[in-house]
Design goal:
By secondary structure, this protein is mostly helical. Helix content is about 75%, strand content about 0%.
């Protein structure tokens, strides 16, 4: 088959050395960190922004959720573009775009209220931000899939995804202080500057490692290549070495295990999206005397720890002879059922510290997802990880505009009765755990 002009052809013989793997893991981890710091900025300062612009709960839910309209519907396209033309070519441009939007968000909000249609302009700004950020995770999935042996992909990608929670901690800790001292606008500018620094670092890593992540081959020192000689297969190398084939979507979509994983991704993503977007507002309203730097940081610290531990636990289980399917089901089941239990306990307490503990445990349970469904695309679609992860990420991102938007309506209709939001979310997690336990798999599908 002839290669079309400009089409990306993955490199030949490019499994990363250990040194290259460390450099790329740190770079991708830090990139995910600043991306999520940017994404968390508006939820963290939502109460202050809502007060300034006189938003009700429906307005807040709409503005928070519309980010995911652009994010979710761009995922599949973003994954395919990353697989086809090279994530290393796509990522610098998309990253610079969302970085600029983040830095200028306060000015764009002011501009929106200068026009005659402020809400419409705000929706456009948020949707565009989602579109630009949609390329990040599928691009990283594509990079990892092409440059690591099969036994290393899940561990490295799990660590990279853990950067999302570090970003939330960063935005929560620094943002709470900036909002109190300077105002909510300073948070966006701080995160925007950090993101711009990362864009420069990523460009430097690309230039330094041309032939590694950049798509050209280079010699590998004997004994340094990250290949498990016992478990690695020719197929895993072909997934990194061959030009990007078309994705057999029909085969994938007809397999019940794919839909089980997609449902688990959706239900887990729904719980995380609601906590991610609404938790600062919940604590601000329910416990007005509590310090934002506490409730914006402590739950996220828990998920940071478990999201880093989960890939290690999963790798250890595999090393001990457990099957991939058993390991994925164990990790994802513990994650979803743990979240459900915690959310059902929230309406039973009125203590700030006990409530904080419950939400911290819920976020910790969510971190176990990084040893479960989060890395499933590498299991059942090793040759199409970017494209399939785009579909998966879309399933999780849809909850961002459905779940977050509906939560805003529930709160508006029930006079801010948060119990309804948490119970409905818990029920969905239980359903997701049951379906994935029955039908999920860690075997190759396509």
């Amino acid at each position: 088959m002839l290669k079309r002009p400009g089409e990306y052809e993955p490199p030949l013989g490019k499994i990363w050395t250990r040194a290259e793997s460390r450099m790329w893991t740190i770079t991708m981890f830090s990139g995910t960190c600043v991306l999520y710091a940017a994404r968390a900025s508006l939820p963290i300062c939502a109460a202050a922004v809502a007060k300034e612009f006189a938003w009700n709960k429906t307005d807040s839910g709409t503005v928070l959720s519309c980010f995911f309209w652009g994010y979710a519907f761009t995922q599949v396209f973003a994954g395919r573009i990353a697989d086809k033309y090279g994530a290393e070519k796509v990522l610098p441009y998309s990253s610079l775009a969302w970085t600029m939007i983040t830095f200028f968000t306060p000015h764009l909000f002011d501009f929106a209220y200068w026009t005659n249609y402020p809400l419409l302009v705000l929706l456009g700004i948020r949707v565009l931000t989602g579109v630009c950020q949609a390329f990040h995770i599928p691009s990283l999935a594509s990079i990892v899939s092409k440059h690591l042996a099969a036994t290393d992909k899940g561990r490295v990608f799990g660590i990279v995804l853990a950067g999302s929670h570090w970003g939330t901690v960063l935005a929560g800790a620094i943002g709470s202080i900036l909002i109190d001292w300077i105002g909510w606008r300073s948070l966006f500018q701080f995160v925007g500057i950090l993101s711009l620094i990362w864009c420069w670092i990523f460009r430097w890593v690309l230039d330094r490692n041309k032939g590694t992540g950049g798509g050209r081959s280079s010699p590998q020192p004997e004994g340094e290549v990250l290949i498990d000689k016992k478990h690695d297969t020719i197929e895993s190398h072909l997934s990194a070495n061959n030009p990007c084939p078309s994705v057999p979507w029909g085969t994938l979509f007809r397999h019940p295990a794919f839909w089980a994983a997609a449902i688990a991704q959706y239900t887990g993503g729904n719980s995380y999206s609601i906590l991610f977007n609404w938790l600062p507002s919940y604590f601000h309203e329910t416990f007005p005397s509590a310090k934002g730097v506490v409730y914006n940081v402590v739950p996220s610290l828990a998920i940071v720890i478990t999201s880093l531990v989960a890939p290690v636990l999963a790798s250890r289980a595999l090393a001990e002879g457990k099957t991939v399917t058993y390991t994925r089901k164990l990790m994802e089941g513990a994650s979803l059922l743990g979240i459900a239990l915690c959310l059902m306990l929230v309406p039973m307490t009125s203590s700030f510290w006990f409530t904080l503990l419950i939400f911290t445990m819920a976020m910790a349970a969510r971190g176990l997802h990084h040893g479960g469904v989060s890395v499933n695309p590498h299991d059942f679609a090793p040759n199409h990880a970017g494209s399939v992860f785009g579909v998966f990420n879309a399933c999780g991102a849809i909850t961002g505009f459905v779940g977050v938007y509906i939560a805003g309506h529930i709160l508006e209709a029930t006079n801010n009765n948060w119990s309804y939001v948490f119970i409905v979310t818990a029920a969905q997690c239980i359903v997701g755990a049951m379906i994935y336990t029955l039908l999920g798999t860690g075997q190759k599908i396509i």
